[in-house]
């Protein structure tokens, strides 16, 4: 059996299958990204719920794997050179899994960097801006703030980003050619904006054509449907 006992996080979340990729996560957009990739690739994984209510992400065990106290993080028992390998940051995990499996990231340099640029666009723009919009528009703490200038700032920037996506998706089913890790990164954030934050009226969603259709295509994928509650919220 693969021995993962050297990783302190396994004392809090013992592996159920030590040969499977250990996923420490919660079904937020960043967490769903990795569940989608694991499902799309057919990789065996063992999903452990990192509960924000319990502040699991602040425990010494979780911090031993990700000192930045954010989900998701993984341990691959069959990492480089066949040794267990820990990794955090969702974008890095997507690239790692794509390279491990040879899937959803083109080998040809021109196409590869097209995918990577849109992955970075999600990480540097979509995630931070949509996330801040969600705080000011959807959470109790954010709604209690009387000054609405921060909300307007993030709403305007989210609307601008959506227009960038709308243009890129003209004549395309997927963001950078074939379905890729860039779509796995972008899709969950569009879903949370529409279906969780219900921010359509704030950011011009109803004026868009390509982006809503793109999100529907993404959510129609069976692997995506299986990933939306991974790990279980009550786990």
UniProtKB/TrEMBL annotation:
Superkingdom of source: Bacteria
GST C-terminal domain boundaries: 108-235
Domain GST N-terminal residue range list: 18-105
Gene3D superfamilies, sorted: 1.20.1050.10, Glutaredoxin
CDD domains tied to this protein: GST_C_Ure2p_like, GST_N_Ure2p_like
Family the entry assigns: Belongs to the GST superfamily.
PANTHER family: DISULFIDE-BOND OXIDOREDUCTASE YFCG, GLUTATHIONE S-TRANSFERASE-RELATED
The protein's name in its UniProt record: Glutathione S-transferase family protein
Species per Swiss-Prot/TrEMBL record: Acidimangrovimonas pyrenivorans
